[in-house]
Amino acid sequence: MARAIFDYTKTVLKKVSFDVDLFCKELKKAMKRLLPFEIEELRLWLMKFTANKPELHVSLALIKN
């Protein structure tokens, strides 16, 4: 079940990546739902996903806290 939530979170973040505010909002919601090791995995995925999307680099600050 937990893995399904993690995969769903990545799907949602990919779909809303066109809007920085919406992306950050969904990321905050995901951080409340995911387990600590999943948050670390999401942080690594986020670094790769935002590598060529400089407008989304703001979201990296949210996940480091």
Summarize the entry for a quick read:
With 65 residues, the chain is mainly α. It has helices spanning 2-15, 20-33, 36-49, 58-64. Helix content is 75%, strand content 0%.
The main β sheet shows up as: none
Order of helices and strands: HHHH
Tally the helices: what do you get? Answer: 4
**Average pLDDT level:** 92
Q: Report Rg.
A: 11 Å
Which parts are unreliable, with pLDDT below 50 for 5 consecutive residues or more?
A: none
N- and C-termini, Cα separation: 25 Å
**SS elements, strand count:** 0
- The number of domains is 1
Question: Which strand-content bin applies to the residues?
Answer: under 5%
Which structural class do the helices and strands define? mainly alpha
**Helicity level:** over 70%
Q: Can you tell me the overall shape?
A: globular
Report on the architecture of this protein.
The structure is a single chain. This protein is mainly α and 65 residues long. The protein has one domain. Helices cover 75% and strands 0% of the residues. It has 4 helices and no strands. It has helices at residues 2-15, 20-33, 36-49, 58-64. Helix 1 (2-15) packs antiparallel against helix 2 (20-33), helix 2 packs parallel to helix 4 and helix 3 packs antiparallel against helix 4. The longest helix is centred in the first third of the chain and has 14 residues, at 2-15.
